[in-house]
Amino acid sequence: MNTVIAKRVDEGTADTSEIRDLARAAGYTVRGELTQTRTEDAAYHLGEGKVEELARLVTREGAKTVIFDNRLGPYQIYNIGTKMPEDVEVIDRFALILDIFGQRAQTRKAQLQVELAELRYELPRVDAKVSLAKREEHPGFMGLGEYDESRERDIKSQISRIKDELETIAKTEENRRDERRESGFDLVALAGYTNAGKSTLLRQLAADLAVEENEDLHPDLDPTAESRDQLFTTLGTTTRRADMQRDVLLTDTVGFISDLPHWLVESFRSTLDEVYRADLVLLVVDVSEPVEEIREKLVTCHDTLYERNEAPIVTVLNKIDAVSEEKLEEKRAALSALAPNPVAVSGIEGLNVDALAKRISRELPPLQEERLMLPMTDGTMSLVSWLHDNTHVEDVTYDADQVLVEFSARPSTVERSRAKAGELSVAESA
Question: What percent of the chain has pLDDT over 70?
Answer without folding.
Answer: 82
